[in-house]
Amino acid sequence: MCPATPSSDADAEPLLAADDLVEAVGAPLAREVLGDLVAGLGARVAAVHHAASEGGEEELHRACHALRSAAAQVGARRLAATTTALERSPAGTGLHRLDEVADSTARAIGSWLARPTSDAPTRG
Fold first, then answer.
1. Which residues 6+ apart lie within 8 Å of 69 measured at CB?
2. What's the whole-model pTM score?
3. What is the pLDDT of residues 47-81, one digit of tens each?
4. Alpha-carbon dihedral of residues 5, 103, 49, 96, nearest 10 degrees?
């Protein structure tokens, strides 16, 4: 098992700032982009794992950048910060922590998406 690389900066970030996203783009688009993140999250995390174990530094940088950008775009701030911490850590360390945060983020998004649309704040 890889040692956890908890970053106080990463852990201090909110897991999901979906309400900020709703305020910026409106509830329908927020639901769409959050759904897209969840749909592609497993593949993006797998790409980071692959790059960390078999790729070079540049491949890891690209995989982390793709995951971090997708996470930051939808307000998954802790996932973005954890990805940054992993990228700056020695090769392969922090992957377990990334898995934990990605799973927690997916659950938080799933819970948010399960809310009735009328419960979601609207843009305005």
1. none
2. 0.80
3. 999 999 887 889 999 999 999 999 998 889 999 99
4. 30
